């Protein structure tokens, strides 16, 4: 870089000298000696000003080896110090080691950092399973010891069972990455699997889970990354404090474990339902279809076609209440069992109608679905309108919907020229 600056200055010097020679030659017949001196003085001043400007502009960026330093890094560090926050950048999170899709989503939604570790608030977790993209933010909030201590000391007692636990705590509690994986697992766990999950935690078979057993089992949910190797310290979190108390001596029995899982599933479903009901006791059939399809990988235009089909086939809205809404989505957690029945129908080359669908759900999963909900589902996944379910499409879309917390493709938006074209295309569609 120093060589480049010097060569630039030399080129400007030669240009100025050539200009002065031409100027002196043209004016030699009429110009006096003093005029030539003035012209030379003006040229010299111009050269010095130009050279000085370039030197002051480039001098801070010149270093040994002729390489420009990354000034943006310095700017980020200064801004970090001023704000007391850790500014999130792609390089900060992903350049040092490969990460899984689940960890990528966790890092995208996590809004806090403490002692070099990234944490989610309860609000972050709810948003990660109900929203496509995280809220815009400048950076992660840098938690101080006093703030973390205050959060932990004000953790709600597990005796206060509620389907609004996470919404009550919101940003006044933190959870770790391994706890995030544990909670995601809960959201897709059928009731029949509660006992199996409990027994996996209960290593000594005393029908209670203590803090040590919980931490040991958490390791199953995490694949160690390079950044975590050798870090054996376990930071106290809101979830640990909620389960095992301030001293870590409390235990979880089976009934409390099941209630926590039920309440978390219900809380997430309530958020989805109330988003569309807006205080009313029911949502429309088209809104039900929207909830069913929006967390899948289905193309947006295709999803709109499905929803429009429901509106056309069901012009008179009857509505779907929360209990029927909840029953259907809890049935989806038993989709693997129901798939066996569907495959039997497919093997026999027999289509499935609404009555057979409801009976198959009850036999395979024990759930009794409202007939109107079943009818609505058929309007979504009955391509030909002949009253028969499109089984493969139903299974594919529903499996995709269940694992919404593992999605990262919505975070990977096009940038640059491709992003500009995508934006223009979207705007033209809306027009």
From TrEMBL:
Organism listed in the record: Acanthaster planci (Crown-of-thorns starfish)
Subcellular location: Mitochondrion inner membrane; Mitochondrion intermembrane space
Protein name: Calcium uptake protein 3, mitochondrial-like isoform X9
Pfam family for this entry, one: EF-hand_1
Molecular function as annotated in GO: calcium ion binding
RNA-binding in keyword set: no
UniProt keyword list: Calcium, Membrane, Mitochondrion, Mitochondrion inner membrane, Repeat, Transit peptide
BP GO terms, sorted: calcium import into the mitochondrion; mitochondrial calcium ion homeostasis
Domain EF-hand: 189-224, 369-404
Family annotation (Gene3D superfamilies): EF-hand (1.10.238.10)
InterPro entries, per the entry: EF-hand-dom_pair, EF_Hand_1_Ca_BS, EF_hand_dom, MICU1/2/3
Signal peptide (UniProt feature, chain positions): none
Keyword Mitochondrion among UniProt keywords: yes
GO cellular component, one term: mitochondrial intermembrane space
